[in-house]
Amino acid sequence: MNSSLQGKVVVVTGAGGGIGRSVALAMGAAGAKVIVNDLGVSMSGEGGDPGLAQRVVDEIRTAGGDAVANQDSVSTWNGAHAIIQCALDRYGRIDAVVNNAGNLRDRMFFKMNEEEWRSVIDVHLNGTFFISRAAANHFKDQESGAYIHMTSTSGLIGNLGQANYAAAKLGIVALSKSIALDMARFNVRSNCIAPFAWSRMTSSIPSATPEEQARVAKLQKMEASKIAPMAVFLASDAARDVSGQIFAVRANELMLMSQSRPLRSVHMSDGWTSESIAEVAVPAMRNSFFKLERSPDVINWDPI
Q: How many structural domains is the chain composed of?
């Protein structure tokens, strides 16, 4: 056990399995007191195992750490506040939040219904806002705190059949940057991790074609535990000057992801018309257009 988080209290949502479980275990091993939050439901929000969170708590305690289970929902204002209150009631403070809880309703955009859209937005984007907002005043008052949000290359780059998930995950990036800007004066930082790992979230990836099967085989080699060190670092005082960034973690590889900035600029002294845009502006910018690519098309080398 190291002591990089000694004395800190960390909430990890969706911590009953996969990446969340690994992050919670690593936080405990680093000396943090951990709120292990998980509803214990399936990726579709049904059934599941309500004992998931408690089993992770038992693992942390067996290893010599301190943790408590929580089963409130991140997808409601009251549920999110109850999760943060759990930390305050048990340990008297909150120092870091890992927004990891997630669900999936994969469907091609032209077939996606309202429930499939809203359920994913509610858990990922609304849930990240609700938990972050619930912790904000406590961070502000103590003039310290760290937010770690899970985003995805589905939002940063793109993927098929994930309009709801991609929109939520890119929204989280914008939310994280806004939090970083608004909370900087209080020494509170906010960063994103785009994880590559085999988990319940990725086990639904189609594998019908040889190409899809090859992609799944690569993902299965990426252990969820590889994400945890970056989360521990971002929660620690060693990351005191790191905020507003997006990191990708892929097996033993770390990436700093780009953020939107102007690529080209064209000027017309008399102002633009739709015709001059078609004749002058677009041809001038076309070489800088982004291709219609998916995440595996861009990050297409084998994991290290």
A: 1
